[in-house]
Amino acid sequence: MTTALPTVRRTRDGAVATLTIDRPHKLNALDYPTIDALLAALYEVEEDDTLRAVILTGAGERAFSAGADIPSLAVSIAGGTERALREIVARGQGLTRRIETFPKPVIVAVNGLAYGGGCEITEAAPLALAAEHATFAKPEITLGFPPPFGGSQRLPRHVGRKLGLELILTGDPIDAARAAELGLVNRVVPAARLLDEAAALAERIIRHPASAVTACLNAVTRGINLPIDEGLAVEAAWFASTVPTPGVTDGLARFLSRH
After folding, report:
1. Catalytic residue among 120, 123, 197, 203, which?
2. What is the 3-state secondary structure of the chain?
3. What proportion of the chain, given as a percentage, has pLDDT over 90?
4. CB-count exposure of residue 204 (10 Å: 0-12, 13-18, 19+)
5. Apex CA 153: angle with CA 92 and CA 138, to 5°?
6. Beta carbons of 63 and 116 less than 8 angstroms apart
7. Which of 87, 100, 123, 140 is catalytic?
8. pLDDT 10s digits, 142-179
9. Is 120 marked active-site?
10. Residue 140 is among the residues annotated as catalytic for this protein
11. What is the Cα 91 distance to its own chain's centre?
C-alpha cells in the first residue's frame, strides 16, 4: 500500500511505515509544505495502532535532506523577526520535537548528505543508520545564524560541548564514519543495504510489546537531561504504566513457563 502527500511519500511493509522526503531535485530540502506533510504523516502513523515503527529517509541517492529550504527561509526572514520565529523556528523545532518524542521508534536512514535541518532531524530521532557515502554538516553559521531546528541544543548533548561547537562554529562537514564515532548515528552500512538494515532494526524492536517500547522511548527521552533523581522518577512512572499491561503478563508467563 502506498499513499502520497505533496512532498512526502508513505509506504508500508507490515507494521513498519517508511516516510520518504520526496524533493530530490532540491536535495530533499525542507520547505514549509514538506515539514507540514511530515507532521501530518507522523500523526497518521501514530493514530494507526497496526503500525509499530517508522523509517524516515530521502528520495534519491544524493541527499537525506539538505536542510531548510533557503528561498522559503529568506522570505520569512525578510518579513521580520516575529515572522521568522513563527515560520522557521516554531515549525522546525516542532518537527524535531515531534520526532524526538514520538511514541513509536523512528529510525532515520541517512541516504546521502544530511545538512542543517537534515542533521537536526538525525539528532532528534532515537535511532539512525547512515549509508557509507552520507555526510553531515551544520552550515547555518555560513548564513549568519545558529541552528534553528534544535541543533544548537541536541548536538552538544549527543557529542559533548566542544565537539558540538566545532561542528556548529565551523560549518565543516563530517563523513558517516565520523558521525558514527561521535554517536550521531548508530552505525554505517552499505548504501544498497540501508533500507533493509533499517527494516531489520525495526523488526528487532517491534517483536517486543508496544507498551514496553513506548515506555522505554519515553523514559530515556524525558529523563536523559534531568538530574539523576528526577530521571529515576521518570523511569519509575513509565515502569508503573506497564505493570497492568498484557505485555508484562505475557512476558512473565513465557519466562516462568521455561523455568
Report:
1. 120
2. CEEEECCEEEEEECCEEEEEECCHHHCCCECHHHHHHHHHHHHHHHHCCCCCEEEEEECCCCEEECCECHHHHHHHHHCCHHHHHHHHHHHHHHHHHHHHCCCCCEEEEECCEEECHHHHHHHHCCEEEEECCCEEECHHHHHCCCCCCCHHHHHHHHHCHHHHHHHHHHCCCEEHHHHHHHCCCCEEECHHHHHHHHHHHHHHHHCCCHHHHHHHHHHHHHHCCCCHHHHHHHHHHHHHHHCCCHHHHHHHHHHHHCC
3. 96
4. exposed
5. 70
6. no
7. 140
8. 999 999 999 999 999 999 999 999 999 999 999 999 99
9. yes
10. yes
11. 15
The residue behind cell 516462568 is 256
pLDDT tens across 41-80, in order? 999 999 999 999 999 999 999 999 999 999 999 999 999 9
Cα of 224 vs its chain's centroid, Å: 16
